[in-house]
């Protein structure tokens, strides 16, 4: 059975363009259980075929549909209109802190470059000939790594971060969250190297602990906690030096 249609109309303001974007306003039917991604898709299919945006899975797995909705970065496929509309209006923009390609599509190259700069490539100590490492899920290190490991690099935390917006050298919460998981992974060959890169210029010490990354994370991770862990362990390492 098709979803029921509300008699009301939803007003949708979408940021369009590239270097000098402007808002275009559209009117779409207000449907039950409608997500923000449903709304953007309806605008593109029925009103504005040149509208550019990203999406893939539509079920909250890939994170590619992230946009700014009424001022906050969100996964649009998991955001119901009824939770975020303001007076029957949605204002939709691309993610902050990343260059716009067109309309709602951003260039994430800088985001991933910083992710690599934080030393986030896993380097194992074992070879293919070695048996699988036996890692107890009950160890303190494994629990800390597990608490942060579900990040899928959607960029929502990066877009929510105020420090990123004014310090372009800051690596950002996603990159540092990943560094924390590697630092706690006993299979990683260069844990000290990860900590060194994560605490270098633009690293974890640039974080002001506003907590925006944690409050906006769609999968309830705490990059704020991961960054605090990096700071704490860097300080302990410094104090233990001869």
TrEMBL record:
Domain 2Fe-2S ferredoxin-type positions: 8-98
Stretches that traverse the bilayer: none
4Fe-4S recorded as keyword: yes
Keywords: 4Fe-4S, Iron, Iron-sulfur, Metal-binding, Oxidoreductase
Pfam families given in the database record: Fer2_3 (PF13085), Fer4_17 (PF13534)
GO function term, MF aspect, one: 4 iron, 4 sulfur cluster binding
Enzyme Commission no: 1.3.5.1
EC main group: oxidoreductase
Cofactors demanded by this protein: [3Fe-4S] cluster; [2Fe-2S] cluster; [4Fe-4S] cluster
InterPro entries: 2Fe-2S_ferredoxin-like_sf, 2Fe-2S_ferredoxin-type, 2Fe2S_fd_BS, Beta-grasp_dom_sf, Helical_ferredxn, SDH/FRD_Iron-Sulfur, Succ_DH/fum_Rdtase_Fe-S, Succ_DH/fum_Rdtase_N
Biological pathway: Carbohydrate metabolism; tricarboxylic acid cycle; fumarate from succinate (bacterial route): step 1/1
Taxonomy, superkingdom: Bacteria
GO biological process: respiratory electron transport chain; tricarboxylic acid cycle
Family to which the UniProt record says this protein belongs: Belongs to the succinate dehydrogenase/fumarate reductase iron-sulfur protein family.
Name of the protein: Succinate dehydrogenase iron-sulfur subunit
């Amino acid at each position: 059975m098709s979803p029921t249609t509300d008699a009301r109309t939803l007003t949708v303001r979408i940021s369009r363009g590239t270097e000098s974007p402007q808002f275009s306003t559209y009117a779409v039917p207000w449907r039950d259980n409608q997500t923000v991604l449903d709304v953007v898709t309806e605008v593109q299919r029925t009103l504005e075929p040149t509208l550019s945006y990203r999406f893939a899975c539509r079920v909250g797995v890939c994170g590619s549909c992230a946009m700014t909705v009424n001022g906050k970065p969100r996964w649009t496929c998991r955001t119901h209109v009824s939770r975020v509309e303001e007076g029957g209006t949605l204002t939709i923009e691309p993610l902050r802190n990343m260059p716009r390609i067109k309309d709602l599509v951003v260039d994430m190259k800088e985001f991933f470059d910083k992710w690599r700069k934080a030393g986030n490539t896993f380097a194992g100590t074992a070879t293919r000939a070695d048996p699988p490492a036996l890692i107890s899920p009950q160890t303190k290190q494994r629990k800390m790594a597990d608490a942060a490991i579900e990040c899928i690099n959607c960029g929502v935390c990066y877009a929510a971060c105020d420090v990123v917006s004014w310090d372009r050298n800051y690596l950002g919460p996603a990159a540092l969250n990943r560094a924390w998981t590697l630092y706690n992974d006993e299979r990683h060959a260069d844990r000290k190297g990860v900590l060194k890169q994560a605490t270098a210029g633009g690293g974890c010490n640039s974080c002001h602990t506003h907590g925006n990354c944690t409050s906006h994370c769609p999968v309830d991770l705490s990059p704020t906690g991961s960054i605090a862990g990096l700071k704490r362990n860097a300080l302990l390492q410094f104090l233990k030096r001869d």
